[in-house]
């Protein structure tokens, strides 16, 4: 079972799209309603214009019919009226049966209305004469407007000269007017669409500036836990967003203080747990350093005493000393050298010096590893040696796990990694401490003189643009029921008084939030767990800069 906790991020269904879509739909609907209304108004205006045009022509023909002395004069007027661009046909008729008095075609004059060849105009004339009522019909498919109306005055019929009711019928071409209205409507449609688009973009810009922008700032700050005045500047408003931003910023500050307190508590818990082992480990090399120093002191005193006796014996020899005196002096010197046991000193002194140097170096390594935990400069983001951080953490943990587990380390060839090396040290230390606890939970503490059953293996390697640190143990493992919560900052399985229980949460935050890496684990309950840290060699991603958390 492999578990990972990725950093939450905004999805494609963000609030800006959820708000922009309704705005676009609203303005699109409004534009469509305006276009439909504009089309209806254009058709109404077109029909109104045609009616007015036809009525003007009908009134002129009526006036001409009253003033014309003969049908020929009426025909001349109708012929002039037929020359209009939009006139398709004109016919004036009167009598029973109705005959054409004048028309747009000379051949029509004198014909019975029923004999007219033109489509529809005969029907219009007969209807107007018979019913004394007008007729209007707009043929949009063929671009024609039919108009007929009875004439108020009785007209003199062609045959017989008697006066009879008359009527006029007009067929007008609507193509030109329709084209003009279409162009006008198209201009208005374009203006409406452009206006709707402009209002949508303007509204979204205002919405983004006043609402979405500050919300994005708040979301980014909350996700990255940043408390930067420059970042929060757009949220300094006096409305509800400003109040929300102030509240969240205060929460982030409080959370930073809580995280700092948790990290300090966890560090102090680790120091407390390791204190006994550190004291024991330092005491052991110091003990044989002390024994070696005492041996060297006693040996030096004996050697100095022997040298003093030799010098005193040599000083007693004069230039005129007899052979017996010289033999006595040499016997005294040999006795003094024999008492000093020079062969023993020659054998033991180098060994005692080496043991002293070894003990001092061991103490120095322990102190150097412990100092790495408190090194303030190790929190700076810079290219550093991750292997050194892992080695320091292993050195510290090694002191506490001698009777719990065997700890093996395999260092790979790593490039300098842009990181906060102090944080990497702490993350590895937390994972190692967790591994020691897991091993102790399953195997307990080994008996004196016997190898412990626990095993912890630490390995570093490079994988492309990342370095990988794995910490594997054969401890109790992680139960599936809690596997998804082990990185939660307020979840722990430790009993009260045994650490802060925040080690894994701290390691996860350091790896993911502060270094843009990944921390995953593969665990089998009762068989062990392997934690894997992946850190980018180039450091945290430039698109997600992280602020340094309080140490």
Please explain how this structure is put together:
This protein has about 550 residues and is an alpha+beta fold. The protein is about 55% helix and about 15% strand. A six-stranded mixed sheet has the order 1-12-13-11-10-8. The radius of gyration is 54 Å and the shape is rod-shaped.
Quick take:
The chain is 55% helix and 17% strand. It contains eleven helices and 13 strands.
Write a concise keyword list for the protein shown above.
single chain, 551 residues, alpha+beta, Beta-Lactamase, 5-stranded antiparallel beta sheet, 55% helix, rod-shaped, disordered N terminus
Shape: rod-shaped
Provide the CATH architecture of the domain at 19-181.
Answer: 2-Layer Sandwich
- Estimate the strand proportion: 15-25%
Please report the number of helical segments.
11
Helix vs. strand class: alpha+beta
**CATH fold description of the domain at 19-181:** Beta-Lactamase
Q: How many beta-strand segments? A: 13
Share in helix: 55-70%
Q: What Rg, in angstroms, do the CA atoms define?
A: 54 Å
The succession of helices and strands, N to C, reads EHHEEHEEEHHHHHEHEEHEEHEE
Average of pLDDT: 75
Strand order of the largest sheet: 1-12-13-11-10-8
> CATH superfamily assignment of the domain at 19-181?
PAS domain
User: Biggest β-sheet, characterized?
Assistant: 6 strands, mixed
What's the level 1 CATH class of the domain at 19-181? Alpha Beta
């Amino acid at each position: 079972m492999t578990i990972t906790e990725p950093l939450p991020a905004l999805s494609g269904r963000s609030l800006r799209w959820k708000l922009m879509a309704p705005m676009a739909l609203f303005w699109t609907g409004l534009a469509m309603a305006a276009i439909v209304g504009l089309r209806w108004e254009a058709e109404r205006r077109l029909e109104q214009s045609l009616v007015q045009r036809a009525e003007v022509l009908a009134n002129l023909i009526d006036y001409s019919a009253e003033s014309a002395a003969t049908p020929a004069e009426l025909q001349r007027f109708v012929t002039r009226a037929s020359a209009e661009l939009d006139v398709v046909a004109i016919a004036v008729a009167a009598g029973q049966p109705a005959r054409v008095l004048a028309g747009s075609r000379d051949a029509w004059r004198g014909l019975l209305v029923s004999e007219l060849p033109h489509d529809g105009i005969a029907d219009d004339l007969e209807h107007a004469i018979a019913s004394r009522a007008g007729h209007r019909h707009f043929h949009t498919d063929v671009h024609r407007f039919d108009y007929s109306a009875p004439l108020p005055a009785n007209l003199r019929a062609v045959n017989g000269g008697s006066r009879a009711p008359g009527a006029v019928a007009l067929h007008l071409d609507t193509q030109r007017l329709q084209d003009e209205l279409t162009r006008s409507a198209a201009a208005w449609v374009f203006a409406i669409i452009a206006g709707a688009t402009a209002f949508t973009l303007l509204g979204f810009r205002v919405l983004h500036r006043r609402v979405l922008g500050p919300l994005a700032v708040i979301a980014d700050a909350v996700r990255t836990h940043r408390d930067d005045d420059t970042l929060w500047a757009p949220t300094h408003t006096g409305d509800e967003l400003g109040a929300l931003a102030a509240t969240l910023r205060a929460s982030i500050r409080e959370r930073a203080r809580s995280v700092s307190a948790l990290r300090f508590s966890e560090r102090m818990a680790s120091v407390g747990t390791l204190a006994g082992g550190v004291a024991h480990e330092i005491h052991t090399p110091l003990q044989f350093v002390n024994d070696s120093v005492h041996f060297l002191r006693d040996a030096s005193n004996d050697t100095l005493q022997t040298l003093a006796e030799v010098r005193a014996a040599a000083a007693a020899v004069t230039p005129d000393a007899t052979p017996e005196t010289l033999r006595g002096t040499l016997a005294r010197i040999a006795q003094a050298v024999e008492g000093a046991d020079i062969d023993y000193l020659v054998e033991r002194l180098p060994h005692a010096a080496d043991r002293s140097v070894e003990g001092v170096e061991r103490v120095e390594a322990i102190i150097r590893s412990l100092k790495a935990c408190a090194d303030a400069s190790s929190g700076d983001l810079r290219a550093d040696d991750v292997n050194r951080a892992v080695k320091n953490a292993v050195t510290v943990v090694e002191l506490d796990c001698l009777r719990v587990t065997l700890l093996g380390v395999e260092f790979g060839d790593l490039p300098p990694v842009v990181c906060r090396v102090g944080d990497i040290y702490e993350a590895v230390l937390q994972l190692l401490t967790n591994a020691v606890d897991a091993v102790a939970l399953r195997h307990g503490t080994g008996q004196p003189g016997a190898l412990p059953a626990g095993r912890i293996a630490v390995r570093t390697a490079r994988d492309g643009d990342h370095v990988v640190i794995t910490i594997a143990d054969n401890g109790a493992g992680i139960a599936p029921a809690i596997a998804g919560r082990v990185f939660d900052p307020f979840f722990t399985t430790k009993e009260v008084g045994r650490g802060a229980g925040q080690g894994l949460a701290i390691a996860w935050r350091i790896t993911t939030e502060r270094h843009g890496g990944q921390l995953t684990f593969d665990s089998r309950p009762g068989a062990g767990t392997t934690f894997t840290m992946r850190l980018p060699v180039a450091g945290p991603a430039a698109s997600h800069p992280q602020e340094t958390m309080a140490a």
